[in-house]
Every structure is written in C-alpha cells, then in structure tokens.
Amino acid sequence: MRQVFEQAGRSGNGETWHAILRTELDAHARVHGLAPTSETMRGGELSVTYQLRRTWIDFDAEAGGVLVCAGDAALLGLMRSIYEQACRDPVRLRKLIAQVPGDEWDD
Predict the structure, then answer these.
(1) Is the Cα dihedral 6, 87, 84, 32 positive or negative?
(2) Which residues contact residue 50 at a Cβ distance below 8 angstroms, ignoring those fewer than 6 apart?
(3) Band of the pLDDT at 33, cuts 50, 70, 90?
(4) DSSP run (H or E) holding 2
C-alpha cells in the first residue's frame, strides 16, 4: 500500500484518507441519486442522506490516520468497507486516489 501512495505522490496519512473517503462518499451519493455532502453542521460534521435517512458524518484527520464517526451504523460500515477494500487491493486504491479532485488534497 505504501508503494501505491508513493507512486501517486501522496503521504498515505489521515489527510490522504480523508480526501479518498470524502470523495467516495460524494460519488456514492451521486450514483444513488442523492445530494452530495455539502451542508456543514455543528462542529464540522457533514449532513448526508444515506439509505433514505438524513444523518451526519465527521472525519478527524489530525494524525497518521483518519477517524470516521457517523450517526448511522450502515454509513460507518460503508466507509469501513471502502477503506478495507482499498487496503487489500492496490488497483482499487489507485482508482480511488485518481478520483480525488486536485483541490481536495491536503496531505
């Protein structure tokens, strides 16, 4: 996995994962006909509709990883699944990195 990040010029830290997961969350919303996450709630949490329910998600990327909190267990499971798939599959990780818009990177 480290090699994939190095080849892409990314650090692989929490900010990298935040950009990947946030981009994938927005893509998932578009595919399922939902509005992408854009509304910021209290404390930086994002308001999101997932499985026809309004909930929230928050990313904390202060250190070498990213902490994801969500008001819905299924949404948290989606984020965990994206992360685990990317960790197991270098091709998937490369694809996810390539999908992140340039202005989303903060690593």
Answers:
(1) positive
(2) 34, 72, 74, 75, 78
(3) low
(4) helix 2-8
**pLDDT score of 8:** 94
d(CA 94, CA 48): 26
pTM attached to this predicted model? 0.85
In three-state secondary structure terms, 62 is coil
Q: Which of 93, 98, 106 is nearest to 2 (CA)?
A: 93
Cβ-count burial 11-28 (b if 16+ within 10 Å, e if not): ebbbbbbbbbbbbbbbeb
Separation CA 7–CA 90 (nearest Å): 11
Which residue's structure tokens are 């990947």? 20
For 95, list phi and psi in degrees, rounded to 5.
-65, -45
